[in-house]
Amino acid sequence: MNTALIRKRLVIGNWKMHGTQVSNAMLLTGLCAGMAVVHDCDMAVCAPFPYLGQVAAALHGTGISWGAQDVSKHEQGAYTGEVAPAMLVDFGCKWVLVGHSERRALHGETDGLVAEKASAALKAGLAPVVCVGETQAQQQAGQTHEVIARQLAPVLALGAESVAKMVLAYEPVWAIGTGLTATPQQAQDVHAFIRAQLTELGVPQVRVLYGGSVKASNALSLFAMSDIDGALVGGASLVPEEFLRIAAA
Ligand code: PEP
Fold it and tell me: Is this model's pTM higher than 0.85 or not?
């Protein structure tokens, strides 16, 4: 089976902690108005929690899906400030990012916690987008594969049935928000490494996105790589024309 043929492209925008109701409305209107240029590619946006209702209302029935940027590992209870997986489902979320490098670095999220969050998300019916990636120091020390394998291990340990419902995103930390992008070949090398692990688990069809300063100008060359199934896009997802051009690529 050629799994490349059945892995439909997916482009997800990560709005991070940006937006107001007014700017979101303009962005969402721009996306809906321009999405006819996008073919054979699933599109989604991951918005800050307070705006999920606004995003759901604007995108319902458009073909663009939506999600959140983090989730609690707990189902409910005395966890002030946390957001439960079922609450995201209540807002029509399909996706949730887990293990974004900013959460790992700034909020101390461990590989184990990331796997617990992914598992809780799956249990509620969400599709986790599990992010992995090495720092610049780790890359320069030649530790990229080792770091990715370590980050993935507890997630893959959830088993093939669970992993089959996920999306993975390779986001080298040194390329996030820096303007630096892995070359298509550098990215492909890591994606092939991840694909080998998925194949060993029996789920080669799982989509693996690339993230890190993806723009309309570099999307085409990245998407030409056989194991890159789309992109997780930060900064460029805040500009509708740019995000649409990435998805159209
Ligand atoms: C991200 O936030 O996941 C990301 C890849 O950001 P940027 O595209 O801005 O590098």
Answer: yes
